[in-house]
Amino acid sequence: MAKVHVLDIAFTHGGERHAISPVLIQDAQDTILVDCGYPEFVPLLQAAAEQHGTTLATVNRLIVTHHDMDHIGSLAELKRQYPHIEIVSHESEVPYLNGTRQSLRLTQALASYDELPASAKEQAEAFMNLLRAVEPAGVDRIVTSGERLPWCGGVEIIHTPGHMPGHISLYLPEQRTLIAGDAAVIEEGRLAIANPHYALDLAEAVMSVRRLLDYEIEELICYHGGRFEGNIREALLQLVDAYSIDYDEQQ
Length: 251
What we know:
Number of strands: 16
Number of helices: 8
Keywords: Hydrolase
Structural class: alpha/beta
Strand order of the largest sheet: 1-4-5-6-7-8
Pfam families: Lactamase_B
Domain Metallo-beta-lactamase: 19-224
Function: Counteracts the endogenous Pycsar antiviral defense system. Phosphodiesterase that enables metal-dependent hydrolysis of host cyclic nucleotide Pycsar defense signals such as cCMP and cUMP.
CATH class: Alpha Beta
Helix content: 25-40%
């Protein structure tokens, strides 16, 4: 059975402590990296991999959950250092990864810029410049929802839009493990919607969480928060119910 390693990476940004949790899935034939952090994070990824007794040189597949900067910032650099790596993404993410379309997060930031108070514009401009600086990378394999990749005992693609239209989560049936990406995050020990005010479609994001209830999940890994501790099904139900209540109150 393939091993699943959570690469818990802590770092400082803007004077604040942050953490992300890319994932390595590894068996005797393949090593899959799921998401790869901000630009210039290759040394941090390497150090985290070494803590689990492996190296980035063993990675031969890299699955991208979506094109937010903290998930793809080191994608091009990794491909340069390890040209054998096969980059995998959902079909609708391809033009944002290869640079033929502007990042949806940049489009969103530009649309709200004029409404910001003057005191917030400098920070917004810095954020947009960071988004513009992310280096594009080509996609080697396009996947669709429901597709089951044959690596590491099987990796099922679950289209979980909302946070972004092409967002995917991954289900490992042998391990009954769900790699959520940003379909859900862990905040103070509870599951939550990732940055709900910035979700491209919040209602769809909640529906994506509901879709995860169709899977038998014994381990849930979030990109922001790592491994979830607690009753996973109950936590997913509580998250869906919380937003259902919010929608009822708005109507």
